[in-house]
Amino acid sequence: MHLLHIKGFKQEQTAEVLQQNLPITKRESEVLFWVSYGKTSWEISQILAMSPRTVNKHLEQIYRKLGVDNRTSAAAISIRLLEATH
C-alpha cells in the first residue's frame, strides 16, 4: 500500500466532487476517482481496503448509472468533470 499513497493528495475532496456532480454513491465515487487515474481493480481494492470483486460490483453500478459500457468511458466522464472543477 505504500506505493499507492501520494503525499499531500486530497482524494476525499476530489472523490466528493464526483459524488456531488454524478448520480453515484460516495464509495462509487472513490472507485471512479481511482479508475480515472488508471488503477486496476486490484490496485483500487488495495487502496480502498475491499476485495477486487467488490470494486467490480461498484464499477457495474457506475456503468449503469452513467450510461456507459466500460471503465474507459466512465474514466473519460470522470476526467472531464475533474478537469472542469480544478
From TrEMBL:
Which Gene3D superfamilies does the UniProt record give?
A: Winged helix-like DNA-binding domain superfamily/Winged helix DNA-binding domain
Sorted alphabetically, which PROSITE patterns does this protein's record hold?
HTH_LUXR_2 (PS50043)
The organism sits in which domain of life?
Bacteria
Q: Where is the HTH luxR-type domain?
A: 17-82
Q: Which residues form a coiled coil?
A: none
Key word Lyase present: no
Which UniProt keyword terms apply here? DNA-binding, Transcription, Transcription regulation
SMART domains named among the record's database cross-references = HTH_LUXR
Q: Which InterPro entries match?
A: Sig_transdc_resp-reg_C-effctor (IPR016032), Tscrpt_reg_LuxR_C (IPR000792), WH-like_DNA-bd_sf (IPR036388)
Which SUPFAM superfamilies does the entry link to?
C-terminal effector domain of the bipartite response regulators
Name of the protein? Helix-turn-helix transcriptional regulator
Q: Which organism is it from?
A: Psychrosphaera algicola
